[in-house]
Design goal:
Elements (H helix, E strand, L loop, with lengths): L16 H6 L9 H8 L5 E5 L6 H12 L25 E5 L8 H19 L9 H15 L5 E6 L3 H4 L5 H20 L4 E8 L5 H4 L7 E2 L14 H5 L3 H10 L4 H12 L15 H10 L13 H9 L10 E4 H5 L8 H8 L3 E6 L10 E5 L3 H15 L6 H14 L3 H14 L10 H14 L5 E6 L2 E8 L4 E8 L3 H10 L13 E9 L4 E2 L3 E4 L1
Helix pairs in contact: 4-5, 5-7, 10-11, 10-12, 13-16, 17-18
Length: 536
Amino acid sequence: MSEKKPIKIPTTGVHDFETLVTSEKGKYVDKTELLYELANDADQQLFISRPRRFGKSLMLSTLKAMFEGRRDLFKGLAIDKLPWEGWKTSHPVYSFTMARAVGETYELFMEQLAKLVKLLCAQAGVPYDGTGPVSGQFDDFLQAAINKSPTGKIVVLIDEYDEPVAKFLDDIKTLNRVRSVLHDFYEKLKINSGSIRFLLMTGVTKLTKLSVFSGMNHLKDRSMDKRFATLLGYTPQELDAPLKENVEAFGAQNGMDFAAAKAEILKWYDGYRFSPDSEKRVCNPVSLGNALESGKLKGFWESTGKASLVINRIEKAGKKPEDLENVPADAFMLDVCDAETLPMEALLYQGGYLTIKDVICGDPKKDETDKYVLAPPNFEVREALKRGYLSQVMGLKDGPFDTLVDRAKRQIASGDWKGYLYESLFGLYASIPVDWHIKDEAEAKRYFQLFTSMTGANPQPEVASIFGYADAVIETATDVYVFEFKYRKSAKAAIRQIRERGYADKWIGGERPVTLIGINFNPKKRNIDMPVVEPA
């Protein structure tokens, strides 16, 4: 009996399309029908932004093979049956990443950018002069490559266009110098656009768009285009097929059937909505691939990069991670791209920490524009934000704090809420740095939300009743817990308010028992008093 062949998983480390489809390195989830539509866009000079590690490099590699007419690589894929021009006429493709032009200083950036142009000239087999401004050198390369092309046209694919600028986000003076150079550099693409069959620039943010693209006003932004909402990332339908066997294998490793495994995967990694005009959402491809490969649900995406800039901006705005569940925004706010004025909402959205949760349509008769409600896309990102905040802002390092959280998780998982409230919650509040001051009830509640959500529970804040709002409600499959907070008063007063205002009434008489929990924060102790727990 032959040994069973291992199941391929979606690639997490292979960004080259040819390598992916000709080796055992991983599984390619067919996006070629969407790439065909992108390549035939009426506007041939395009821009798409997506969060890091979302498959942008693989997309460009696939487009490169398409325009080079390498039909052998696309056997069995959707585009193989489509009337793609590349099957008859190929174009020279120049695909490069601006990560090659990153330097620790302005001078190193300039040096690396010149090396990039020299490399492009070598790829095209055209002379490299190396004199004059680097933008002029790039212009010389483009014209020479166009003149050498059998079709008189070339294709240009640029990855990580914003990397050189992102290096200097904390140094605005140098950032502006770099941005000015890139403006002149990229402007050469517009000058030669008549001979460029297709141009696609990708990156994480729009930080450089204001000045870089002012010389490229022909470039069309497809980042929020509903046609390409699922171009990068995996849809729930793609978990059904072609990733079904992967999800089944994951489920088998974790004692779950397909439906349960899929539900857990979606909870952790799904939820990214890239177009306000489409309800379609996608999973983070890197996180999903790592989960299927390891058989574990954990935070893979955040381990691939630092969130320090994001956490700093959250703190500067006076926010905590739990304040990001219903963030108002609009299209203009999310499109702001200047580093000096970039709103927190735009930074978090473009970086993948927030996504479109809901769209509130404006009335065109009243000249109203659509409004968006943003929120973290999934459990993985929520955990990353909380962990980053606790570590970077509150100084709660791994070790003792993790021990507290792990104990709290076990208590809540086993239904030991008294153990959590009387033991772990005290320790968690005691972990707050001595120079931090919980100044009011609202602040005390926010820490409860932060700590309790770290345990895997899902406290719903400000739950409406007939006579007001319960501070928090936690519903499990077997129980309902209704919380009220006080500050410099008493836990018993909190219980009285729950009863007097009927915060728990909607659940009383149901199949699940209802428990009332009163908590008072005592500023003199810098901790909570003993909570009061009573049946409804």
